[in-house]
Amino acid sequence: MPEITLTVRLSPSALDSRRGVVRLHPEVLDALGLEPWAGVRLTGARVSAALAAEGDGPPGVVLLDDITMSNIGVTEGGEVVVAPAEVAPARTLTLSGSRLAAASLSPETVRLALTGKILTVGDAVSLLPQDLAPAPGSDVTAVRGTLSRAIGMTWTNELLTVTASEPSGAVAVHPSTVVGWRDGARTGEPAAAAALAGPGGSVVLPEPQQVDVDPVVVPSAAPPPVCDLIGAKDATDRLTEWFDLAFKRPELLTALGTTAQLGVLLTGPEGVGKATVVRSVAHAAEAEVVELAAPTLAALEPNAGAARLSAAIESATSRTPAVLLLTDIDALLPATSPPPIATVVIETLRAAVRNPGFAVVATSAHPEAVDPRVRGVDLLDRSVSVPLPDARTRVDLLRVLLRDVPVESDVDFGVLSERTPGFVAADLIALRREAAVRAAVRAAAAITFADLTDALSTVRPTSLSTSDNLQTGGLTLDQVGDMKEVKQSLEETVLWPLRYPDSFARLGVEPPRGVLLYGPPGCGKTFLVRALAGTGQLNVIAVKGAELMDKWVGESERAVRELFRRAAEAAPAMVFLDEVDALAPRRGQSSDSGVADRVVAALLTELDGVEPMRDVVVLGATNRPELIDPALLRPGRLERLVYVPPPDADARTDILKAAARNTPLAPDVNLAELAASLDGYSAADCAALVREAALTAMRESLEAAEVTAAHVARARDSVRASLDPAQLASLEAYAKSR
């Protein structure tokens, strides 16, 4: 049976949300031999099934909703193995849910909502208005009204859990399926009215029922050997040492007056391989791994989540030595607003970690977001981190990942490593998969270097979102005309610390942490940042100052912390703060209840961090430098101030040539003479002039073959100089005073 490993992405379609539908590229459907709306088996941390439909995502991606991701125990950016599913009609289906749901929902209503869905035991399913489609003899309006009265308007968030089915495996719900509540009414049977109706018609809740859900046991032969875990040596060494003491030499700890209990919090960026490290080290220690995805537990009804955790612990303690691997624990036990189940989970884990021959290892990409009780001395009292791979580590990772893959001799791992800043192991695996798909489309026998580099247009680092990731477009500083002093200053500040770290260390020089670019609008500040990032192969996280401002107390500061955390995960990276004067104005002069002052304080805290930012530089850009809080411009912060002046005649000539690179010009168009006459024009104005001249030619004739001097002259009537002489004089005076 064919199967393909794909990268998980959250489906953007509201129509697919919580409906058990996955979207696959048509090429993937063909490769699996599937027709649209056939059943697929999804294997992550656990196995589930769903309906497959065509999607418009890349071939290497599967689009899932949040419930389906929870059902298979993966998060966005993780991997899932997709294969055709053998789906049988469900003869019976047993469900559990909240006491309120079991008391107020008839089995017939549940069957109506689930008809057509593909389910497996242990799945969470949601009731949605669109799923209550009219069925023979059903009054959908009455059903929805009953749900709203009994559960409230939030009944669409109600989650049920599949506890049993006949036959087992993946089943499809049909109108003839016998659906019922665990130890409750089933379709075709009258509900126990006494159990449902109280005085005055109120709903009386039955006693909660225990939910039996089998835990997931990860096969010990699945993980790679420890020697292949490139870049995780510190984590593997320490886990190996701890497992050895806890599992094989507990008597030594007892003799020294302590216990062998072991609880570990394993941290690191998303996709860096935290769970793989645990599986591999546990396999080497001959320990069983029982794995649970914390987001899955968080999505379940509290009773079902607690039952699944207890079942996993019971399964693990019966297989000692064993490790309970709880991935993404911050989703279940957040530091802020913990769910009601949090206390039960913590107490359950505290009791479990005392068992001999048993360890609890939890992973998190956001350790600061984990409930502090988790890191107590009686639970996860030890921690270790898997770092972001640097360029040298990525070379070794690529060699291991492509070791058993046919590749052409032209593949240059060093160049590929330089072009993948911020990539973690999961991203490189996705890159390998995308390159393999491209090679397969060509029916090639091996992956070429071009396949890998072309795949970079699709695969982006997990740590970066498409919304704030500034694309370089292949620009480099060599393509920036004139501005020699500006380019030199930026190279020294941003690129030298990355290229020559030994020289900085030898001379005892601390690299600058930030740069402020200031100058008139439209003079190329953002263009310079893109070119700088392209030259240094840096990831750029770009935000406008106003985008981080939020009216809710604490949210703006949280956004600043999150921005710098993501930059650290994507290193080498630049944080580009456009319109930084809106983000960090002079303190004490705003009328926003102190929001701006708190944001400035948060920004200064990040720049002055106890641990220096590694391979992360901050660039700010503004037209109004005098409005920025002076504390931000002191040494150790945005200490290098670089004035980006308006272009002179020579620079305007270069800009016009670049803007007209793909525009055919008539012989009577002299760009040098034109540039000399454009005093007061910014770089953006010059580019707009070329664009308007081309449009003028098109208005004259859609068959126009070139742009003439007459077209340029008419375009000048529309595109005027935008530089304000007063603002320009103020900026030049500011530059002279620095």
Describe the structure.
37% of the residues lie in helices and 16% in strands. The chain is an alpha/beta fold and 738 residues long. It has six domains: 4-86, Barwin-like endoglucanases (Beta Barrel), CATH 2.40.40; 89-192, Vcp-like ATPase, Chain A, domain 2 (Roll); 228-385, Rossmann fold; 391-455, Helicase, Ruva Protein, domain 3 (Orthogonal Bundle); 477-643, 3-Layer(aba) Sandwich (Rossmann fold), CATH 3.40.50; 649-722, Helicase, Ruva Protein, domain 3. It has a six-stranded mixed barrel. A hairpin with a 3-residue loop joins strand 3 and strand 4. It is globular and about 85 Å long. Residues 133-137 and 190-215 have low confidence and may be disordered.
From the structure above, extract its key features.
globular, AAA+_ATPase, ATP-binding, 738 residues, six-stranded mixed β-barrel, 6 domains, 37% helix, alpha/beta, single chain, Asp_de-COase-like_dom_sf, Vcp-like ATPase, Chain A, domain 2, Barwin-like endoglucanases, six-stranded mixed sheet, Rossmann fold, Transitional endoplasmic reticulum ATPase, repeat
